[in-house]
Each structure stands twice: as structure tokens, then as C-alpha cells.
């Protein structure tokens, strides 16, 4: 079972998330929080597999809560899925730096939300295509630490790995990359793992940032 902690200040939205997750055969909502401080306390107490985190919450916002649970120096970073109303938002950018594992927009279909939780629980990262193509494209140059130079990335990765990295940066899921490149999802997963290892990256989010910062993928505007 995937143990989920739901952190959302709007009671109606929070109840909707709980209903969606509890209806899944492989998920269990182990706790709820209506503000960031309560979210941190619940996460430390319950040790959930995935935390679904709103950004704008009272007492302590979702960014600071994410930083305390998954930020630099955290011994055991939590897996956090940020669900936000905004697809281009300084708050989302800060949450990325704080260590969030993925992002979805609140208007996402329930199936996307369910898939997002499963993806992050499996140790992968998730970026909604809208967030990838706008937020990352605009803010990538401001993220730290600086990635290796483009020529080093090209030298380190095979042509196929470079191709997969470009598709990741375009916001495609493993299944979508597999379909586009005519390979299996399992093969894509292997390529992603190799890319992260070779470039010393923590997760898929950092891979996207690196692709934009090195010019392998051009951001909007």
C-alpha cells in the first residue's frame, strides 16, 4: 500500500483528495494537514510514502514545509508531490529548489493525480508538461548548483541517452517516451537511471533543469 499524507488548507479540496486516494486499491490516506506546520509534524510522525502538498497554506507555507522535509541536508528526504493552481509561479519555482519530487496542476484529471502519486512512490519524479515547458524554461538558469557544460553532457551520454534526456525535458512520461522512440517503458526507465547516475543527478526534476541550462532544450521566450 502507498501511504499518502494530504496537506491542503481548503477542506473541500482536501476531502476530494482523500476520497480519490482511499478509493484506490493500492493507496491509503494515513493523515491530513490543513497548514504547513501540521504537515511537517504529521510527516515526521507518520512517515508517509508520498506527501501531496499545497503551496499556499497558513502558519507555514508549503514551500517551507517541503524544504524542512526534503531540502538540502535532509537525512531522509520525503517524496513530495506539489499540487498547485499556478503553472508559472514563483512559489512553484521555490518549491522545486526546496526539494519537491513532482508537480501537478489542480485542474489535472483525477487519473493524473493518482498516477502522479504512484510515480513518485516508485522513486521517479513527475513534472506536468505545462510546468515543465513554462516554469522550468523561465527559471532554469537560476537554479543551483550549476550543471556541467553542454559538451561534457554530450561526452558523457550516448546519443540514445541524449535523446531520452531531451524527451524528459519536453515533459514526456516514460510511457510517452517509449512510444515516441519505439522502445519499451522498461528500457526508458533503464536509460533514465543511467542518465541520472552518469550526470550525478538526484532525480528527473534535476535532469529537466540540466537540459534547459545546458541548452540541450530551449525554454520558452
TrEMBL record:
UniProt-listed GO biological process terms: phosphorelay signal transduction system; regulation of DNA-templated transcription
Record-linked InterPro entries: CheY-like_superfamily, NreC/VraR/RcsB-like_REC, Sig_transdc_resp-reg_C-effctor, Sig_transdc_resp-reg_receiver, Tscrpt_reg_LuxR_C, WalR-like
CDD domains: LuxR_C_like, REC_NarL-like
SMART domains: HTH_LUXR, REC
Residue stretches making up the HTH luxR-type domain: 150-215
Response regulatory domain residues: 3-121
Entry keyword set: DNA-binding, Phosphoprotein, Transcription, Transcription regulation
Keyword Transcription regulation included in the entry's annotation: yes
4-aspartylphosphate: modified positions: 54
GO molecular function: DNA binding
UniProt name for this protein: DNA-binding response regulator
Top-level taxonomy: Bacteria, Bacillati, Actinomycetota, Actinomycetes, Streptosporangiales
Amino acid at each position: 500500500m502507498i501511504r499518502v499524507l494530504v496537506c491542503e488548507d481548503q477542506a473541500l479540496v482536501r476531502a476530494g483528495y482523500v476520497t480519490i486516494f482511499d478509493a484506490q486499491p493500492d493507496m491509503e490516506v494515513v493523515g491530513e494537514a490543513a497548514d504547513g506546520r501540521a504537515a511537517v509534524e504529521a510527516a515526521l510522525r507518520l512517515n508517509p510514502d508520498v506527501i501531496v502538498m499545497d503551496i499556499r497554506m497558513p502558519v507555514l507555507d508549503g514551500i517551507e514545509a517541503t524544504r524542512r522535509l526534503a531540502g538540502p541536508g535532509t537525512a531522509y528526504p520525503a517524496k513530495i508531490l506539489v499540487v498547485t493552481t499556478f503553472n508559472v509561479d514563483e512559489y512553484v519555482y521555490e518549491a522545486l529548489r526546496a526539494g519537491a519530487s513532482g508537480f501537478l496542476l489542480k485542474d489535472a484529471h483525477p487519473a493524473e493525480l493518482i498516477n502522479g502519486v504512484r510515480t513518485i512512490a516508485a522513486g521517479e519524479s513527475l513534472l506536468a508538461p505545462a510546468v515543465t515547458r513554462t516554469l522550468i524554461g523561465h527559471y532554469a538558469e537560476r537554479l543551483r548548483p550549476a550543471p556541467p557544460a553542454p559538451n561534457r553532457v554530450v561526452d558523457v551520454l550516448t546519443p540514445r541517452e541524449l535523446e531520452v534526456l531531451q524527451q524528459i525535458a519536453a515533459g514526456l512520461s516514460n510511457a510517452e517516451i517509449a512510444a515516441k522512440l519505439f522502445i519499451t517503458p522498461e528500457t526508458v526507465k533503464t536509460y533514465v537511471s543511467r542518465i541520472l547516475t552518469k550526470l550525478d543527478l538526484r532525480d528527473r526534476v534535476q535532469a529537466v533543469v540540466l537540459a534547459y541550462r545546458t541548452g540541450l532544450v530551449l525554454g520558452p521566450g
